[in-house]
Every structure is written in structure tokens, then in C-alpha cells.
Design goal:
- By secondary structure, the chain is of the alpha/beta class.
- The protein has one domain: 4-Layer Sandwich (Purple Acid Phosphatase, chain A, domain 2), CATH 3.60.21.10.
- It has 10 helices and 13 strands.
- A hairpin with a 4-residue loop joins strand 5 and strand 6.
- Helix 2 crosses helix 7 (223-249).
- The radius of gyration is 20 Å and the shape is globular.
């Protein structure tokens, strides 16, 4: 049985468009003069929209992508992971797959052998696979149960295993993508498909690795730890700006971002000790989304429970929590199921131009 979910529709933004006018165009062109050339991918046929959309939108879709995260966790899911890959491969209409990080749980050893096993499974994906790392595979590896590793050494190991060929996706049929390898982040990639500007952002839980490495006996972040986080967030926020700038220039329908960290977890009471690193990114998301005329989607994992909301829309409590200036009513956040809730993958369809919203999706059980 498939459990369908209708996405949020984007609000009408025509009045905003006229108010910005030439100023936004000039700002976009100026920004683009500073940007490197990003890789692009071939386009595919557009997908169908839902009932009530413009005429001709009722046809079956032919372009979509799968999103998973926080999997496999524990022995049972590790054993079942090949069959999960097989089920995603068998789903029609998927031209891309995305893993939003945490390829293991936080209490198992962070070994090279494990990483190599996951890489072998990633190569079995028929569609090109994007992977953005999570905290469990490097940030949290200081924990005794995870092996008591130096997290920065494990970050280097993750990059060596999964990103040895910068500018190429994983999977059995890799494609060329834009990459921030020149800035030391081959995992931050960008591509364009079906009028969507897409990017993976290396942003993780454990306060984006500003949480102390207590497993190594530390009670505060090290200077090296702080420097790595700052450089990675600098590059990531630049990538967000670049992605939006190119989307504006191309008149793209949507910007789609993928990351591991759930910056807006509704299931717990946040504290600055766990979220302070996200403030800058949240403000950049508001700045960029609020001056973009299309839809914006942020797919994440981390909190393990499927959730759809608009965390930066007018009236959201997160605006005050992060002390954000402005709002982003056109940004929809989608959290995928993970950990023991990972009994399904998210199938996302790109709807035809003229539809009321750019993306729609459904949770597809692996057992179906």
C-alpha cells in the first residue's frame, strides 16, 4: 500500500515580482560574474500534476527522484539494505536517487570496512546517486561505541571512499555534476534537471560538528574543529547563493536542496548549544528564497520521522528562535523517514509546467 501526501502549494508571488523588478535582475547578474561554471545534467520528460492543475496535467509522470536517509541502522537494516536498493531500482520513473546522510547509527564503529560496504551498495543504484554525509559517519565517531576516532580523520576517510572522483555522482550510471572540490568539499554538488536547480549541502547534526568531542575527553570544541566548521559553512552558504542566482538567471521553476541536519526538528525543544551553527544558513535561506519567484524545497533527515512543513513562513516559531530577518513563505521542508521508521522511501515527481506546485511526492513502502 502506498501512502500519498500532497505537497504544500506555493503562494502567489506576482506582486513581489513587480516590486523587485530590475533591482533583483541586476543583483543576480552581478553575483553570477563571481561564480564558477557548474555542471549540468540532461533533462527528462516532465511529470504529471495532481487534480485541479492546469489542463493537460493529468498524464502519468516520467521524471522523478527517490530520497532516503538515516539508513541502514543496525544489523537488521544492514542485511536488508540490498533489497531496499533493489526496490528503489524497480520503481518506474526515477532518474535520480539521493541519500541525505547517516549511513549508520551513532553507536556502531566508524570503520573503513563499513564505508566500503556501503559504497558497494551505492554503486548498485541504477539511477545516479547523490550522497551528502551525516554526523554518524564522522562527527559522532569520537564516541566510545563508535570507535573513539578523531572525527576529522573520519571525515577525510568518508571523502576518500565516496568522493574520490569529484564532479561525478555515485551509482551504476554516474553523471557529471558541479562540485566544490576546489574548496575541499567534493561532497557539495549541484546540478540542473527539468527546470530545477538542485544542490547537496554538507550540514550535519551535532551542531554541524561544533558539539564537543566528549568521547575524546573534551568539553569544548577544538580550534581545528571550529575552523573546519567555519570553512565548510562558508562554502555551503556560498553554494546556496550560487544555486539561487543561477535559478533566477534561467527562470527555473524551483530550487531543491538536500542536507542531513534537521534544523527545525518539531519533536524536541532546541537550545543554542545544539543549533548555533545553523543561524547563518537559516538567514541565507530566507534571504535567497524570499527573492526567488519559484518554489523552494529543503529535503533533510536526522530526526527520523516523516514531516512536511514551512518552517520559515510568516508566523513560524523558528523565525524568532533563529532571530531571522524576513520570511520565506515559498520554502517547504520535507523530512524523510529514518532509523526504525525507515520502512519506505520518498518518491518525488516533478510536475508539468503550469501545475499549482512544482513537486509532489509519496512514501513508497519497501515491501510494496
Amino acid at each position: 500500500m502506498r501512502i500519498s501526501r500532497r505537497p504544500h502549494c506555493s503562494p502567489v508571488r506576482s506582486s513581489r515580482r513587480s516590486a523587485r523588478g530590475t533591482r533583483t535582475l541586476h543583483a543576480t547578474l552581478a553575483a553570477l560574474l563571481l561564480l564558477p561554471v557548474l555542471g549540468t545534467a540532461a533533462t527528462a520528460s516532465a511529470s504529471a500534476a495532481e487534480a485541479g492543475d492546469a489542463a493537460g496535467q493529468q498524464k502519468d509522470g516520467h521524471f522523478g527522484f527517490a530520497v532516503i536517509g538515516d539508513v541502514p541502522y543496525g544489523a537488521a537494516q544492514i542485511a536488508a539494505f540490498p533489497s531496499m536498493v533493489d526496490r528503489i531500482n524497480a520503481e518506474p520513473g526515477l532518474s535520480l536517487a539521493v541519500h541525505v546522510g547517516d549511513i549508520k547509527n551513532g553507536s556502531s564503529p566508524c570503520t573503513d570496512t563499513y564505508n566500503a560496504m556501503i559504497r558497494a551498495q551505492f554503486e548498485r543504484f541504477v539511477a545516479p546517486l547523490l550522497y551528502t554525509p551525516g554526523d554518524n559517519e564522522w562527527t559522532d565517531c569520537h564516541r566510545a561505541a563508535a570507535g573513539g576516532y578523531d572525527p576529522l580523520e573520519r571525515l577525510a576517510a568518508v571523502r576518500e571512499t565516496f568522493f574520490a572522483q569529484p564532479g561525478r555522482t555515485l551509482g551504476a550510471a554516474p553523471i557529471t555534476v558541479g562540485s566544490q572540490a576546489a574548496r575541499g568539499l567534493p561532497e557539495n554538488v549541484s546540478l540542473r534537471r527539468q527546470g530545477l536547480s538542485m544542490a547537496t549541502l554538507h550540514v550535519v547534526g551535532s551542531n554541524n560538528d561544533l558539539a564537543p568531542w566528549t568521547g575524546l575527553g573534551l568539553t569544548s570544541p577544538t580550534a581545528e574543529q571550529v575552523a573546519e566548521e567555519r570553512a565548510r559553512m562558508d562554502a555551503t552558504t556560498d553554494l546556496v547563493r550560487e544555486t539561487f542566482a543561477r535559478a533566477r538567471l534561467r527562470n527555473d521553476r524551483a530550487v531543491v536542496l538536500f542536507q542531513q541536519a534537521d534544523m527545525f526538528d518539531p519533536t524536541f525543544a532546541p537550545t543554542p548549544a545544539g543549533t548555533s551553527s545553523f543561524n547563518r544558513l537559516v538567514q541565507v535561506l530566507v534571504d535567497e528564497a524570499s527573492t526567488f519567484d519559484g518554489d523552494v524545497y529543503l529535503f533533510d533527515g536526522d530526526s527520523h520521522h516523516y514531516n512536511v512543513d514551512q518552517p520559515l513562513a510568516t508566523g513560524s516559531r523558528w523565525l524568532g528562535y533563529y532571530d531571522v530577518k524576513g520570511t520565506a513563505d515559498n520554502l517547504t521542508r520535507v523530512t524523510v523517514d529514518g532509523e526504525e521508521q525507515n520502512t519506505d522511501f520518498l518518491k518525488v515527481t516533478v510536475n508539468r509546467p503550469g501545475a499549482g506546485h512544482v513537486l509532489s511526492w509519496e512514501r513508497v513502502p519497501y515491501a510494496s
